[in-house]
Structure formats: structure tokens, C-alpha cells
């Protein structure tokens, strides 16, 4: 009788796995996914390699996050140890913000358990600060920079999420992109072309947005920081590196006490690269 029970359990487990595989196949075949991107944003992300979502946070929400990161930058001792570094403190609730997850579940993996947050840091620049440093772009088998589209789905294993906390004016120091370079046939990542990488080549694109906006881009698209030229305010942006569970790009630097004090639903974003969640 015990053997029959074990056999039934085995059959039941195999049936569940088969059903899950079938569901995934259907989702892939018909372009369905776990996220909730609009078809417009999906097409723009695939076409350009990045999207801008304006004013995701309201004025009060921006103030709370900006106060936190400026204290982390200028007076960390005024905060408890687990809030002195990102993604600790008030920022933690943005880890799985719906506007972020709507995109990541579409472009990284429809299973939230297969999405990692590898790194988060503040980019702060006063007028005149910054550097021009183009990188990425072109075809590659390196999973950190690979971009694929298969069976109606985007697969961008390393995707950057940027929270802009101050106004950004177009061509005044925000992150710049060569649209479409994530799918370019020429490998400008390892064989850069000076006339293409020049800031005034006419190929680079930037954006304008109000505080609280999101910029989300594939690490595969050629991109660069820029010299901040906005006379009205410094740049204050939080960069987050989200990866598929099988991709690592940075060495872990987030203090363990920060992760230990996160809500369990946020701690799951900091699993090790290998995890027994593969198909």
C-alpha cells in the first residue's frame, strides 16, 4: 500500500510539472507573460532597448526616498546600520514596485522567483560632473549582455531600472542610448567605432522626465552616462541591476544586515545565482 501511495505521489508530481511546462509553452507561443506591460511599451522596449515611464512616484514619495539617499550619502551615521545602504530603509518598498515588476516579469522571466536584484546605488552629480563612457551593444553569447526575442517573448537577462529623483532635461546629462543597438549585427561592444561613440555623432538619444520617473533598459543596449548640465538641480538617480537567476554581473556588496532586515518578500530578490528553480 505504501508503494502504491509513493507511485501515486510520483505520478501527481509529474502531472504538475507537465501542466506547468504546458502553461509555459502556451504563454510563450501566444506572447503571454507574467508582467503587465502595455503593448506600446513592449514594442518600444524591443525597438529601442529602453523605455521611459514618467511620474511613477508622487512628490511626497520622491521626497521620502531622496531624503533617505542624501542621508546615506552625507550623514550615514544618523541612520540605523541596516538603513545606511541601498536597498535598505524606505527604498525597500520600491524593489517590487508594480511599475517595475510589470516590466521585469515581461522581459526577464514571468516567474518572480527567477528575478534577482544584484545591486542598487545612488548616482549623484552636480553641474559639470560626470563622464562619457559608452559600453555594451551588439551581438554576444555572454548572458550578462545578451538580448533575445523568442516565441513572442523578450529575454533580457540583465535589465537596469533607474529611479530619477530630480527633473531630467533632454541632452542635459541623463543616461544616453543608441536606440536599437541591443540588436545590432556589428559588435560595437568589443569593437567600438569612435565616430559612432562620439557624443555628437547624431546617433545618441536621451530623454526628459519629471522627478519620480522610471527609466528601464536592457544592459545590452549601448549606453553611457553624461556630463550633468541641468542648471536647476543635481542629478539624483538610483540605479538597480536586476538579473535573471542564472546571471551574475557584480560581486555582492550589499551588507548582510541590510538584507536581513528586509521583508521576506524582498529578501527573495537576493538569492544566490544558482537556485533549484530551473525548468
Q: Care to describe what's here?
A:
This protein is α+β, with helices and mostly antiparallel strands. The protein folds into 2 domains: 1-30; 35-270, Sandwich (Jelly Rolls). The chain is built from 7 helices and 9 strands, in the order ααβααβββββαβββαα. It has helices spanning 2-29, 39-48, 59-74, 98-107, 194-197, 256-260, 264-267; strands spanning 50-53, 115-125, 147-150, 153-156, 158-164, 176-177, 213-218, 223-224, 235-244. A 5-stranded antiparallel β-sheet has the order 1-7-5-9-2. Strands 3-4 form a two-stranded antiparallel sheet. Strand 3 (147-150) and strand 4 form a beta hairpin. The longest helix has 28 residues, at 2-29.
Give the overall silhouette.
globular
Radius of gyration: 21 Å
State the strand order across the main sheet: 1-7-5-9-2
What structural class is derived from the secondary structure elements? alpha+beta
Summarize model confidence as the mean pLDDT.
Answer: 89
Number of strands: 9
Name the CATH superfamily assignment of the largest domain.
q2cbj1_9rhob like domain
The CATH class name of the largest domain reads Mainly Beta
Fold topology:
Blueprint: H1 2-29, H2 39-48, E1 50-53, H3 59-74, H4 98-107, E2 115-125, E3 147-150, E4 153-156, E5 158-164, E6 176-177, H5 194-197, E7 213-218, E8 223-224, E9 235-244, H6 256-260, H7 264-267
Antiparallel strand pairs: 1-7, 2-9, 3-4, 5-7, 5-9, 6-8
Short description:
Helix content is 28%, strand content 18%. It has helices spanning 2-29, 39-48, 59-74, 98-107, 194-197, 256-260, 264-267, and strands at residues 50-53, 115-125, 147-150, 153-156, 158-164, 176-177, 213-218, 223-224, 235-244. The strands form three sheets. A five-stranded antiparallel β-sheet has the order 1-7-5-9-2. A two-stranded antiparallel ribbon has the order 3-4.
Amino acid at each position: 500500500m505504501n508503494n502504491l501511495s509513493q507511485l501515486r505521489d510520483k505520478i501527481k508530481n509529474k502531472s504538475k510539472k507537465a501542466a506547468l511546462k504546458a502553461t509555459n509553452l502556451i504563454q510563450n507561443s501566444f506572447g503571454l507573460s507574467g508582467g503587465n506591460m502595455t503593448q506600446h511599451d513592449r514594442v518600444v522596449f524591443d525597438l529601442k532597448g529602453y523605455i521611459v515611464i514618467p511620474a511613477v512616484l508622487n512628490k511626497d514619495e520622491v521626497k521620502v526616498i531622496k531624503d533617505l539617499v542624501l542621508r546615506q550619502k552625507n550623514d550615514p551615521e544618523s541612520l540605523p546600520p541596516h538603513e545606511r545602504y541601498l536597498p535598505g530603509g524606505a527604498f525597500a518598498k520600491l524593489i517590487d514596485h508594480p511599475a517595475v515588476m510589470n516590466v521585469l516579469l515581461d522581459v526577464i522571466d514571468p516567474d518572480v522567483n527567477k528575478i534577482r536584484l544584484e545591486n542598487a546605488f545612488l548616482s549623484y552629480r552636480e553641474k559639470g560632473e560626470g563622464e562619457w563612457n559608452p559600453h555594451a551593444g551588439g551581438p554576444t553569447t555572454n548572458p550578462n549582455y545578451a538580448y533575445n526575442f523568442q516565441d513572442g517573448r523578450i529575454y533580457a537577462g540583465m535589465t537596469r531600472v533607474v529611479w530619477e529623483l530630480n527633473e531630467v532635461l533632454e541632452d542635459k546629462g541623463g543616461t544616453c542610448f543608441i536606440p536599437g543597438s541591443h540588436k545590432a549585427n556589428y559588435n560595437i561592444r568589443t569593437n567600438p567605432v569612435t565616430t559612432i561613440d562620439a557624443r555628437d555623432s547624431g546617433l545618441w538619444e536621451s530623454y526628459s522626465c519629471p522627478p519620480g520617473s522610471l527609466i528601464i533598459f536592457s544592459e545590452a543596449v549601448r549606453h553611457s552616462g553624461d556630463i550633468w548640465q541641468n542648471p536647476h538641480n543635481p542629478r539624483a538617480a538610483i540605479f538597480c541591476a536586476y538579473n535573471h537567476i542564472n546571471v551574475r554581473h557584480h560581486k555582492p556588496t550589499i551588507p548582510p544586515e541590510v538584507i536581513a532586515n528586509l521583508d521576506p518578500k524582498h529578501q527573495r530578490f537576493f538569492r544566490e545565482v544558482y537556485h533549484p528553480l530551473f525548468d
